[in-house]
Amino acid sequence: MIGIVVSKEDIASMNIAKELLAHQWKEKNGVFFHKEKFLVFIDDTHLYHDNIDVEIKKKYGIKPKAIIFPSRHKAKAERKTLSVHPIGNYSQADFGGKEKELVLSAPLLMSQALHMLHQKKDIDYEICFEVTHHGPYLSTPTFFIEVGSTEKEWMDMDACKKIAEVLHEISPPSNKKIAIGIGGGHYAPRFTDIALKEGISFGHMIPEYHLSILNEKVAEKMIDATPGVKYAFFHGEGKKYRKLFEDLGLETF
């Protein structure tokens, strides 16, 4: 089953859950179910709640195939975004997770969510990936789906409803090409464009501001944490690392 984890400390997460549960999910012992999905609440913030998958298995007897975290997105630029991204840390764990550890990504599911948001684009928000960042740490394929980047957007029930509709309807596609992304900015413009126009599913993405630490060990972590990956796409300064990924067996573009 696909698990959806809602934080009671995150107003956007709670607003998304309110819209989602309006779709007649059925509650049993504190867990809400709909087809092959379930939803649980946590009292604290997502970023620092490590091993939620282990906790769910122990408490509810459910072993999730993937976990999705609906959440607020906060940024100084105050861009209006509906975004999805994998999680983990390329360097220090300043916002949860473990230092220099990447969590398993869910490229098919995450990229499908991006497509579904794009199809509902009758709303004044940028639809995009974000690159890999922050916690929590867990062992199950995971991604965040977020509304940002200020309290005004977190309280925008139309935007929260769009995300809720995606979570209610989503199911992973099959037979998609899976890739990782190297280079570009935080909002991954090239990789977002490729995913939407060419049907490529992206897992982990590393931005230009982390390229100084990109070496074979980091590259291997990106590959290992992106199930089914066969391709690497590059943007800007990331193109300098093409040979590194070719030597690790990926087709590069």
Summarize, please.
It contains eight helices and twelve strands. The chain has 253 residues and is an alpha/beta fold.
Labels describing this entry:
Rossmann fold; four-stranded parallel sheet; Aminopeptidase; alpha/beta; single chain; 30% helix; eight-stranded mixed sheet; 2 domains; 253 residues; 12 strands
Q: How would you describe what is shown here?
A:
The chain has 253 residues and is of the alpha/beta class. It has two domains: 2-169, Aminopeptidase; 178-252, AF0625-like (Rossmann fold), CATH 3.40.50.10700. It has helices spanning 11-21, 52-60, 107-119, 151-154, 157-169, 189-198, 216-224, 242-247; strands at 2-7, 26-28, 31-34, 37-42, 66-74, 81-85, 126-129, 142-149, 178-183, 201-206, 231-235, 251-252. The strands form two sheets. The protein has an eight-stranded mixed sheet with strand order 2-3-4-1-5-8-6-7. A four-stranded parallel sheet has the order 10-9-11-12. The longest helix has 13 residues, at 107-119. 49% of the residues are buried.
User: What is the helix/strand order?
Assistant: EHEEEHEEHEEHHEHEHEHE
Spell out the CATH superfamily of the largest domain: AF0625-like
Rg, rounded, reads 17 Å
CATH class of the largest domain: Alpha Beta
**CATH fold-level assignment of the largest domain:** Aminopeptidase
Number of domains: 2
Structural class: alpha/beta
Strand content: 25-35%
Q: Report the sheet with the most strands, covering strand number, pairing sense and barrel closure.
A: 8 strands, mixed
Topology record:
Layout: E1 2-7, H1 11-21, E2 26-28, E3 31-34, E4 37-42, H2 52-60, E5 66-74, E6 81-85, H3 107-119, E7 126-129, E8 142-149, H4 151-154, H5 157-169, E9 178-183, H6 189-198, E10 201-206, H7 216-224, E11 231-235, H8 242-247, E12 251-252
Parallel strand pairs: 1-4, 1-5, 5-8, 6-7, 9-10, 9-11, 11-12
Antiparallel strand pairs: 2-3, 3-4, 6-8
Helix pairs in contact: 1-5
